[in-house]
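User: My instructor asked us to take a sequence, write out its structure as tokens, and then describe one feature of it. I'm not sure where to start. Here is the sequence I was given:
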Amino acid sequence: MEKDDRSPGKLLGTIKLTIILFIVFSLGFFPFVIFGYYVFLIIPFNELWHLFLIPFILYAGLAIILFYQLLFNGLIIHIFNLKYKPGEYEYTLGNKDAFRWLVVCVLYTPIRKILEIFPMGEMKYRYYRLLGMKIGNNTLVGGTIMDPCITEIGDNCTMGLFAVIYGHIHDYSKDTLTISGIKIGNNVVIGAGAYIMPGVVVEDDVKIAAGAVVTKGQRLKKGKIYAGIPAKEKK
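Assistant: Let's start with the prediction itself. The structure tokens for your sequence are:
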């Protein structure tokens, strides 16, 4: 009975998510359409040598798509303040906080996949900041940030390839979504393939070994080295 009562809200929420996704990503493709229009105005492609321009045009078009997808995606999340906050929420489309998290997810996840292939340099960090992530100076984020809205990382940090920082946990048995912020201090090294779970606090000058798993709510002490599953201090 409860499932039937929720179905109209679920359908409406799904429609809203689909419309938001369509509008935002369509805006990101619009500058590419304008670029293509002017390319065909300028270059008639009626001579053989024009074919040699195609790889350069495609490369420029791809760069335009990536840039504007990041720009419009980040700006819409920032301007409409879609950032979510830590807490435990009922995992349904009818819950405003859970819905806000889902909206960010459907907008951010495709961009996150793109950033794993095309790092995009400084634009990547500007995009993260638009989503609410705090990133210090001289910091390299080489892994995956699952929840930028609630992630903070300090100065002079290095996050290795395939490392993952999680900020949320689904409990399908209870239909709950738990979101907890992650705070990483200054001069921290996160090894390749390490996992950092929700609610973790990493103090300054900590080194986390490759493949380590820092469990939910764990606090890593200043200047220490941690390794293993779960992550433990190495003497």
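For the description part of your assignment, you could build on this observation: DSSP finds four helices and 18 strands in the chain. Try explaining in your own words what that tells you about the chain.
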